[in-house]
């Protein structure tokens, strides 16, 4: 039986140079608190993982009590991209893979293009008509939060 796969995508122009953004995006222990803020209770690498090791597993627990175990499965320092995959289920999804990609904006020095495509399946017992729009909204919120984070840093500097 072929299982349905879903794709969501969001992007933004960040008000920060690519080198600065990459230092925050490449390390999940810096990225998680940016994306989830106060809604994350604990987070970090597990099973001997680290920012410099690929693959590396990490886990985080949301204030709601939901726990996610994911793994950095690819990272390119030259392409400035990092890909994660989900182990298990969360938010009604499974088989999730997402990639943060950064691109230099050559016509606007000091700005960075961020894109965030995600692919996933809907876990058994969940309604795709609810899960897919919910994950699309979460993706958009995460990208908007990252954009706001770098805009705030720029204003504070």
Notes on the structure:
With 157 residues, the chain is an alpha+beta fold. The protein contains three helices and eight strands. Strands 1, 2, 3, 4, 5, 6, 7 and 8 form an eight-stranded antiparallel β-sheet that branches. It is 29% helix and 41% strand.
Secondary structure elements and pairings:
Blueprint: E1 6-14, H1 18-25, H2 28-36, E2 40-46, E3 56-62, E4 67-76, E5 81-87, E6 89-90, E7 93-104, E8 112-122, H3 128-156
Parts with pLDDT < 50 across at least 5 consecutive residues: none
Determine the N-to-C terminus distance: 54 Å
Quaternary status of these chains?
single chain
Output mean pLDDT. 93
Note the beta-strand portion. 35-45%
Specify the biggest β-sheet: 8 strands, antiparallel
SS field, number of helical segments? 3
Structural class: alpha+beta
The shape is: globular
Using only C-alpha atoms, the radius of gyration works out to: 16 Å
Summarize, please:
This protein has 157 residues and is of the alpha+beta class.
């Amino acid at each position: 039986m072929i299982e349905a796969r879903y794709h969501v995508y969001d992007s933004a122009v960040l008000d920060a140079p690519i080198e600065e953004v990459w230092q925050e995006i490449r390390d999940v222990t810096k990225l998680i608190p940016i994306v989830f803020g106060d809604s994350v209770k604990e987070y970090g690498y597990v099973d001997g993982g680290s920012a410099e090791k690929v693959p590396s597993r990490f886990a985080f627990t949301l204030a709601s009590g939901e726990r996610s175990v994911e793994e950095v499965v690819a990272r390119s320092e030259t392409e400035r991209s990092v890909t994660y995959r989900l182990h298990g289920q969360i938010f009604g999804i499974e088989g999730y893979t997402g990639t943060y990609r950064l691109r230099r904006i050559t016509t606007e020095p000091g700005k960075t293009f961020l894109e965030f495509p995600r692919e996933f399946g809907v876990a058994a017992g969940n309604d795709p008509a609810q899960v897919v729009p919910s994950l699309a909204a979460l993706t958009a919120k995460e990208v908007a939060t990252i954009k706001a984070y770098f805009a705030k840093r720029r204003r504070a500097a």
